[in-house]
Structure formats: C-alpha cells, structure tokens
Amino acid sequence: MEIINDCESKMKTAVDRLQDELTTIRAGRANPAILDRVQVLYYGVPTPLKQVANVVVPEARMLEVKPWDKSSLKDIEKAIIDANLNLTPNNDGNVIRLQFPELTEERRKELVKDVKKMVEDFKVNVRNCRRDAMDEVKKQEKDKLITEDDVKAYEKDIQDVTDKYIALIDKVCDAKQQEIMTV
Questions:
Q1: Average pLDDT of 10-15?
Q2: Which spans in the chain are helix H?
C-alpha cells in the first residue's frame, strides 16, 4: 500500500540523516566528513570546502586540506576556524593540517550522551512517521475506503516497518558509541 511505502521511505530518510549527523561527531580519529559542512568564501561565494580543496588523512589523528588554488588557503583556514569544530588549523603555506587531540574518558562519555540524545530525536521522528501512517489508515477506514480487517493488517505492517527502523537506528547508535569508546 502506498501509505506503508511512504512511511518506510520517510523512515529510511531519517536513518540516512542520522548517519550523516553522526559522521560530524568527532570520535578522536580523523574523519574527512567532519569538514563536509564547512563553507569557504571563495571569490565572494560560499562554497563547500570539498569543492575548493582535497582532504586527505595522512595519519590516524590528522587531516590535510590541500587547496587547488593556493590563494584560497587563508579563506579555507578562516572557514575552518569559523565552523567551530574545536580544531586549530596549522597553515604551512601549502596545506592546512588539522590535528585531532586524544579524547579524555570524560569527553568520550559526553559524546556518547550527545549521540544518545541525537538518536532519541531520530527515533521520535520515526515514531511520528508511524503515527501519521496510522492516522491515514484510520482516515481511509472512516471514509469507507478500506475494511476493518485491512486496518488491522496495515497497522501490523506499519508497526513491523517501524520496529525494523528503530532496530536499525539502535544498531547505528551502538556502532557510533563503540567507535567513540574504543578510539
């Protein structure tokens, strides 16, 4: 049924967004995805960092940003500072190096709490999709478009899809927590 497919599509989008959000949480290891949201003022136009520079991971705790146009080095450095990533860029005139400090146990626990809060928000999003789908099924029953038996079947299918995506969110959460605690 279209309602279930629509619901599942929204839930999948929520999981994808969660995974994107989690990549921006620094786990003590260098991850180029942390720079995905950095916008560089390139010739007066806000431009994503990855469109003006190459980002590589030469070591486990370091990122190197190599601009294609060396004249944009200062703009890239300023954009990284303005992004509030708690990283200090080291500009040597050719590349910018970002050193990732070792995380303390206390900071790791704070990050895990942040992850759990973020995950709970996405679970609420999935449950809202379920509620909307259930409401639509009830509306169709009220309009006599489907039978009571159909309602029971659709509700079960919607709940199954919801359980599947909640489990997937939990799996993503566990993986991120494991990454944070074992770096």
A1: 92
A2: 2-23, 73-82, 105-142, 148-182
